[in-house]
């Protein structure tokens, strides 16, 4: 056992216990594994990470952190072909702004490990335990179940943790640290859940109807809709609830909706034309959110919110939906918050938080609309309307499945998911086109040939046949997919990932963002290259394009979202010449935060454009 002691300055103790995933333990008497050199000496890119606790989530200002006995952070160390789960429990307080001190101490311990590695070689540490004491930090690292603790393993783990604490000191941003799981093929990201980062394994987690797939209850409560399809945990109940809605969002049903989408896109183009006349910049997320909100509300309730007809595009509601996404992790920590808020009088909510008031006001409005539909259905057996909620109320679902309370949660699910995700895809695709003149030139040339007269646009099925437009949309979806892990549970069967057997009932997840940026599938993953979707490689890549997930719990509104994207991009880029205005990739587009939906920097004023010309 190696002990390094220095004077204690601050009272603190950190216990770092390395826990393996599934491989059997190896005693320290055995020789080092033959693959040790592969991932110790030649793995400078190893990373470490953490899950923020509830105190960090609700803090208005994440600096300074205090590490205390209430603050328990699971931490990860990942190296190629290896993943180690490290749990840190701070049992006495370290003063705020102390991450730099922790980083320094980790670096000192790393230097000690490096010294021993050079002197002794990559041999097992006697007793399988490394102890480091310095300036109030007592650190214990024990051997792991999936590899032995050698000086090489220790050096790489400490190097990763040193870099990681430095990143915390540098950013201290909530939601910004999800991408630390990038390097691990399989990682335990909390005491219950495993994350896999292997595109070939995707279909094993997100399976079709022949295999039962539950949702993890912890992830299902993120948006406060436990009774909507997004928050439904059991496989069978989800199948029943979704079955009523499937026909509404089928390819055939969405094709019939084509003229309605075109009419709303015409209104969208009127707003672009107006900004051409006023020379004012347009926030693409706001204007595309206005479109997607009008489409989904008209489909749900037969009357749109007419955001496109409002002077400000109802931009404050876009902010409300984005804020709901931001607080989704807080809702997970405190699931009782939203029920309390919904029980308060509207005036009280308005005093507490104006944006929360807007959300509650929406809920109350949906209550009235659904109750009105219920009355309409009772009065007439032959209602002329055929909206989503008319269909649910006419269905053979159990009475408790047709209560207004549950249907309001369904409305929040459908409208929320149908608004900001599709708008984000339109915004991101538009940015990349405008930032890549060659791609823009090829698209506009194709659109001019396919649409000789912009006043008479082709139908949705005709647009779907345009190869370069389809390639642009696929590449845009690759860049704009969800940033968070999508957890699933196989309740009745084990899953095999390489040599790991994952027991039934284990929450298992993958991340679309990581799949879409895997260089083995998408070479030069950070480059916008629509050409990658053309030619013989297209079908092979389609398997790995998962912006809507896959399986029985894939995005219900996938066909509707694609229809909106096709019609909007084709019309906007056929009719107008656009130019980016005071927009930066690093600040306004690059994914910086994981709030389930991908977010750019909090300093971003938005992706904005000027309309430079109207094309005949």
Automatic annotation (TrEMBL):
Keyword annotations from UniProtKB, A to Z: Heme, Iron, Metal-binding, Monooxygenase, Oxidoreductase, Signal
Any matching Pfam family: p450
Domain of life: Eukaryota
Signal peptide annotation: 1-27
UniProt-annotated binding residues for heme: 555
CDD domains per UniProt: CYP58-like
Needed cofactors: heme
SUPFAM superfamilies per the UniProt record, alphabetical: Cytochrome P450
Family indicated by similarity: Belongs to the cytochrome P450 family.
GO molecular function, one term: monooxygenase activity
Protein name per the record: Cytochrome P450, conserved site
